[in-house]
Amino acid sequence: MSKNPITTWLFVIDTADYAGNFERDLCAFIAGRVGDCGVGEEFAKLFVSQVDKSDEYLFNNVIDEMDDNGCRRPTSIYLNNDNKYHSVVIFFESKPSSSQIQLMKERSEEFANLPNKWSKKPNISKILGFRLIKRIITTTTQEEAV
Question: Taking a C-beta distance cutoff of 8 angstroms, is the pair 76, 67 a contact?
Fold first, then answer.
């Protein structure tokens, strides 16, 4: 027996750097969302102060997923095409609109050029591109009498 599939969308930002150093801050800066851990809260506040008031809730379709430590987060590191964790993924319950995608691209580039927390170097040396992935999860169950 197969249940209805669950469809979610993944917005992926491919970079030239290890994404574990900035994925939560980047997500907070470009979408105003943070996970249970609270990392990126200052960037989420910056998002709210920088976007038009009408866009404050623009990313209500971003969803949290559980990480390996049981923390719910709207983002994670993600494998790039070279099997390196140089990409950031943001989870969506519905397909991001073209205006959401455009804003995320623009703010990603802006974030990349900001000096990071620990040095005066840019947060990201280079953004290589963006991807949108439709993820369909189908659960199959089989029962048998015991």
Answer: yes
